[in-house]
Specification:
The chain is an alpha+beta fold. It has 3 helices and 7 strands, in the order βααββββββα. The chain has a 5-stranded antiparallel sheet with strand order 1-4-5-6-3. Strands 2-7 form a two-stranded antiparallel sheet.
Length: about 140
């Protein structure tokens, strides 16, 4: 991966992301994070959530999320969202994500997702096709 980045995109901060003080209301960052991961799976890995969840009955819930709020974001700001794949385990993957503005990092996340069966809600091994897609993401320049 170039600079360790597996996936990136730009996010416009919209009116609906902001609180009455005119800055991003912190829970909206978590929604943006989830959307970024979902888009990475669909666009970067070729495994859309609707296929994993709906057809294959596999979930990828967050089991650990460490968040650092560095600077405020305001309506109209453009955030460069960068996702780095930090580790792939037997049933989990660890990510580091940053949302960066013109003045530097606004928020950072360390996130761990675990593959689970939606029938039993127990952890299960990452499927072979997902593991292969993650390996390709690690190798992509």
């Amino acid at each position: 991966m170039a600079d360790g980045i597996a996936f990136q995109r730009e996010q416009l901060v919209r009116f609906g992301h902001c609180d009455p003080a005119g800055i991003v209301f912190y829970p909206r960052y978590f929604e943006m994070l989830n959307e970024l991961v979902e888009d990475w799976f669909a666009q970067g890995l070729g495994l859309p959530f609707e296929q994993l969840i709906g057809q294959r009955r596999l979930g990828l819930p967050t089991v650990h999320l460490d968040t650092r709020f560095r600077r405020v974001s305001r309506q109209g700001d453009r955030l460069l969202q960068r996702l780095r794949l930090r580790r792939v385990g037997g049933s989990s993957l660890a990510l580091t994500v940053s949302f960066d503005g013109d003045d530097g990092t606004r928020v950072e996340f360390d996130q761990v997702l675990v593959c689970t069966s939606l029938d039993t809600h127990a952890a299960c091994p990452l499927p072979d096709d997902l593991r292969a897609a993650l390996a390709r993401a690690e190798e992509t320049p």
